[in-house]
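[audit] Reproducing an earlier prediction to check determinism. Same input, same settings, fresh worker. If the tokens differ from the archived copy the diff job will pick it up downstream; this log only records the rerun itself.
[audit] input (163 residues):
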Amino acid sequence: MLNASDLDRIAIDEDVLEIVPESVARNHTVLPLSWDETTIHLVIPSDAPGRTDELLTTLRFILDRKLTFEVAERSILETIVDLHYSACGSVIQNCPRTFLFRCNKRWVDLDRTDDSQLRHCGKCDTNVRLCKVGDELDAAVARGECVAYYDRTEAFLGIICDE
């Protein structure tokens, strides 16, 4: 079973987030990780014993592909699904903290790095760190890093950068 730190380190193919609709991922609490022409690799909730076959049958019908899967705790999976779909579809905008520029890119538009929580912005030629909680955000800002985050109350991704 995957834990929170495993899920934090997993690189997700952004294209698969477009193949598996957000409504399907949220309604069934599944996180798509990768895909090819015939198969999608997912993380499904571990609390579906006896219902796993039913869930996989439903998903095979909806997605029209073979499925492979791993399992994770539902509450952790809900958080990660929310983060990835919110980040994927959101435009990076100004936030209430100090900004010296406005970036119109989405998280998925930034160039990937070896670190799944770090992307590179060609517009400002700097790395941007994705933070999931306030403590991470505050620590990264204190280190002078550019930061992307999803604010549930404001429903947007923001970048903080002191450049």
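[audit] rerun output stored. Observation attached for the diff report: Confidence is low (pLDDT under 50) at residues 90-102, 153-157.
[audit] end
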